[in-house]
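W.,

You were right to be curious about this one. When I first looked at the sequence I had no strong expectations either way, so I just let the prediction run and decided to look at it fresh. Below is the sequence, 135 residues in total, followed by the output.
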Amino acid sequence: MTIAWTPNLTVHESTIDAQHKQLLAEIQVLLETILAGQGKEQISSILNFLSNYIAQHFFYEENYMQEHSYPGLETHKAIHERFNLKYEEFKLELLREGETEALALKIENFLGKWWIEHITYEDHKYDEYISTHQA
């Protein structure tokens, strides 16, 4: 599976779209790093980058929804919080297990698919709301 942003993932806000592109690209790099057996240091570096980037992205996205009075903000924030908890557990598992094909599959299933599904279903909800309720 290639984890990449595609035009159907747009939420019509340039900063958020750029962040989504970067997140998916970094997850793909993580996947390729593990499959190439490039070691725990590089994996740890990518995971730390992702942690920081995800936090920045969620903060920006939640502020964007708040600025546009999106009624589903609290539900969306709760989804972000659940993801963060799972991601921290996942990070520890990655660092414990090291580079394995099973781990690569978990990255595809957890990180890649989660983000693509989240953008497709949850983020498109606020995109639709904002596009139909702009002043």
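Here's what jumped out at me. The chain is about 80% helix and 0% strand. And, maybe more interesting for your project: The chain has one domain: 16-133.

Coffee later to discuss?

I.
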